[in-house]
Write a structure and sequence with these properties.
By secondary structure, the chain is an alpha/beta fold. It is built from 11 helices and 8 strands. The chain has a single domain, classed as Rossmann fold (3-Layer(aba) Sandwich), CATH 3.40.50.
């Protein structure tokens, strides 16, 4: 069911699906990615959870106000979505920039977060920058390109070489989505600013939600060492390393991702 929440005058589009009596699960996608990019994990998760799936500010059907954005601001957007959907507390899964937003949710709004999953992400600050220098440069260049060219340029940073060779159709699908809903320049600039400015490194030890950290060991966007540092800093957290998998592990390893999430969130 599509709906719209208002966060300080910014309209945040979101969808709710699944059994209303099932545990609520908030899904937060990464930089430049709308809710359409959950692809192979969304339907199986909807059979076990009440999914709340927003388009972050700047992408998809949500507003794209001028930059800069911050992950704290985008965390407040997520709280407004939960309020509007009538969800007092939810499991939270955040991927890449979505994982940075999820960190801020767990730190700034702990009563709203049940269990927490941080995928292929970084704490920023003294824990090290998020994306590698090469990936950051590619992002900045891609932001100036037409949607189809931008999607193809970023694919090698988001997917492993082996997966790209086996499943070139996935990039074709990304091109289709990017062409249908191009990201406004203000939106991509705002989201890049949020990722670059993110710093939760000194506050991770305050997270009390049970936390699962997941990354692929072939991630060329955000190095797996960033996930090890999250694991070392968040009390009682668990780390899962996916062998041979790139940055966008929900796309590359959708079945394994669903198993991990269901096992952790419903244990």
């Amino acid at each position: 069911m599509p709906d719209v929440a208002s966060a300080g005058g910014c309209k945040i589009h979101y969808e709710v699906e699944g059994d209303p009596s099932a545990p609520a699960l908030l899904l937060l996608r990464g930089l430049g990615r709308s809710s359409r990019y959950w692809l192979g994990v969304r339907e199986p998760l909807a059979s076990r959870f009440r999914l709340v799936v927003p388009d972050n500010r700047g992408v998809g059907r949500s507003d794209a106000p001028g930059p800069p954005y911050t992950t704290a601001m985008m965390g407040r957007d997520a709280v407004r979505v939960l309020d509007h959907a009538g969800v007092s507390r939810a499991h939270v899964v955040g991927i890449s920039l979505g994982g940075m937003i999820a960190q801020r949710l767990a730190i700034d709004h702990p009563s709203r977060v049940d269990r927490l999953v941080l995928g292929c992400t970084s704490a920023g600050g003294r824990a090290g920058p998020g994306a590698t220098a090469g990936a950051t440069l590619a992002l900045l260049v891609a932001a100036t390109l037409p949607p189809a060219r931008a999607a193809r340029r970023m694919a090698p940073f988001l997917l492993s070489r082996g997966f790209l060779e086996r499943r070139p159709d996935v990039v074709d699908l990304w091109v289709e989505i990017a062409t249908r809903e191009p990201v406004p320049r203000a939106g991509i600039a705002g989201q890049i600013a949020a990722a670059l400015l993110h710093d939760a490194s000194r506050e991770l030890q305050t997270i009390r939600a049970r936390t699962l950290i997941v990354t692929g060991d072939a991630d060329r966007m955000i190095p797996p060492v960033r996930s090890w540092r999250l694991h070392a800093a968040i009390p009682g957290s668990r780390l899962e390393l996916l062998r041979g998998v790139g940055h966008d592990f929900p796309t590359e390893a959708s079945e394994e991702t669903v198993r991990l999430l269901v096992g952790f969130l419903l244990d």
